[in-house]
Amino acid sequence: MAALSIRALSKRYANLEVLKDIALDIESGEFTVLVGPSGCGKSTLLNIVAGLDRPSAGTIEIGGRVVNDVAPKDRDIAMVFQSYALYPSMTVRQNITFGMECRHVPKTAQDAAVANVAKLLQIEPLLGRKPSQLSGGQRQRVAMGRALVRDPLLFLFDEPLSNLDAKLRVEMRMEIKRLHQRIGATIVYVTHDQIEAMTMATRIAVMHQGRVQQFADPDTVYRYPANLFVARFMGSPPMNTMPARLESDKDGLVAVIGAGRPDEVRLRLRDYDGAAPFVGRDVVVGIRPECIAEGSRAFSGEAPVLVEAPVDMVEPTGAETMVSLRLGGEPAMARISPDIRPAPGASASFALDTRRICLFDPETERLIA
Amino acid sequence: MPDRTFAPSRIWIYLVVSLIAAAWLAPLAVVVLNSLRTNEEIAQGSMIGWPQHLAWSNYAAAWSGFCVAETCAGIRPYMLNSALITIPATIFSTLLGAVAGYAVSLWRFRGDTWIYGIVTLGLFLPQQMRLLPWTIVLRDIGLINTLAGLVLIHTIQGLSFTTLFCRNYYVAIPHELIRAARIDGAGFFRIFWRIILPLSGPILIVTVIWQFTHIWNEFLYGVTFTTGQQQPVTAALIALSAAVADIPQHGVQSAAVIIAALPTLLIYLLGGKYFVRGLTAGAVK
After folding, report:
1. Distance from A125 to chain B by nearest Cα, in Å?
2. Section A192-218 average pLDDT
């Protein structure tokens, strides 16, 4: 059963169209992440699902029921906000029971539900405190407790980790994922952080300019980005995208970066039959930074393509060394072994894994193959 | 820590400040001193002078013995009138202003900025302009010369200020709180009662002090819409000075003025620090 179905949904404010023809089907138990840069419409979409905002057109179904005209409280949802939105004058316990109080749940049932959730989130010692006496991570937990206690069909998270420091963010990320695995809830989670999307989601909806650019599992989004926007948004650093010319010879297809230059780079492509109509035309080649490594690297299986390329800059991060270089005159990032430090300004040898190259149509910016 | 060392150049500052303070306080000082002098003493000397012996009897006379209009019960009944007008009008206007401020700041609805604009427009209408409309309204609903009529006037006139105060305080409250409460199933009034009102302490103190002082000290409506036994103390004080045409009773009059001013003074002394704090709340985060 689809826990959430969004069909032909659009939202406009006066002359500004913030959501255009959104269609999403989310299965029960899925962890869906809506990700995109700020202003892409992801939070508006979440607010519309919650019933805090109205769509201009289209329908929303939650658990098979059209909820367009249903009040937020009757949609069987719970929401966690970026600012946590804990009620400042209430204790943690009152924060958690407030919703049940509004729904006239008997006191004994309330107590049992609080005990249950407090144990799950390990916030039992905090129940008597006020939100102002809690740390950021504790507030986050209480906000989740307030959502969990409702046991809804659908959980909505609106950038819940944005206010935490980096270390805590990673911890809470794992905790939310663990929670999802344990209780099997259906979650729609909004973030601008593509790492959160990759690490937590079972499916990612990448949004840009009010449209869903791609809706797929994290591996597919990463490996086969639907268009140049997704390619450049997902991944840190993002996919290198370089203009190239597609040629063919007796052995098959070749993408040439910087065609005609003395330092042109020829990349032989195997199993890219879908790209055949583009032979003799311009394409955009996409290579992930981890597919460009030091010359001595053997990518599993085949012999890599070796390239001599000038190095612009070197950024050691400890776990690896990031290198900006030029391939056929085009800037690119490489991710090489941490102990190798090529000299900036000089040339170095790089190994390219050509099996994971993506080709895009420069006109439509869509993935060709 | 402020610099506590004394520099000679500061003498000028102290001098100027002291002069201003003296000019400001002189009328009060004259009234306080006269309230402690007997009539004979004032009549023999001048209006300005040190009491030769303290005449506390002026206060007793002003409170319960002196004749105002045709009755001789001092200003006590009029103090009671003022309290019966000021306390309910302060409570009603503050609560209504809080609800109105909450509605225009935290709930979006069609025309909300217009409604807020019209309500606060009331701040700029001179009092005299409103006399005639109020006369018609009070006459038509039968509240001329009643305390209830003045309560109604002050409640409604106060709304402009109380709505403005509360709205400006509430705009700083994050909207996500309201959204969270709506998802939790709380409606307009439950959110106000359980979430917004408990956060409103500072602004309610400011509003109460403001409303109380203004309504207590208000004179024009009191003297226009009530007569005789129904008058608030501000209007009665005038009647008091008019009633003593034969011999000036400056001592008793001064004592009456001070008694009449005491409630607002006390309110300010008790809540003054919250008042200053509340006025600047939000200005400095």
Report:
1. 23
2. 93
Domain B76-280 sits in CATH 1.25.40.10: no
CB contact under 8 A, B179 and A85: yes
- The minimal CB distance from B179 to the residues A78, A81, A98 is found for A81
Asked whether the beta carbons of residue B194 and residue A87 sit closer than 8 angstroms, the reply is: yes
Look at residue A59 and give its three-state secondary structure.
strand
DSSP secondary structure, B135-187, as one string: HHHHHHTT-TTSHHHHHHHHHHHHHHHHHHHHHHHHTTS-HHHHHHHHHHT--
Residue to mutate among A48, A74, A81, A96, with most B CBs inside 10 A, is A81
Task: Give residue-wise pLDDT tens across range A323-355.
Answer: 999 998 999 999 999 998 999 999 999 999 988
**Closest to B182 (Cβ–Cβ): which among A72, A88, A146?**
A72
Pick from A237, A242, A235, A232: nearest CA to A219: A235
Cα distances from B187 to residues B180, B190, B198, in angstroms, run 11, 5, 16
Pick the CATH number of A240-360 from 3.30.1360.40, 2.40.50.150, 2.40.50.140, 3.30.460.10: 2.40.50.140
* Statement: residue B55 has pLDDT above 60: yes
The C-alpha atoms of residue A237 and residue A320 are separated, in whole angstroms, by 13
Cβ contacts below 8 Å, chain A against chain B, sum to 60
CB hemisphere CA count around A99 (13 angstroms): 29
pTM of the prediction? 0.81
> What number is the ipTM of this complex?
0.81
Instruction: Kindly report the CATH number that applies to the domain delimited by A2-233.
Output: 3.40.50.300
Chain A residues within an 8 Å CB radius of B172: none
| Shortest alpha-carbon distance between residue A113 and chain B (Å) | 15
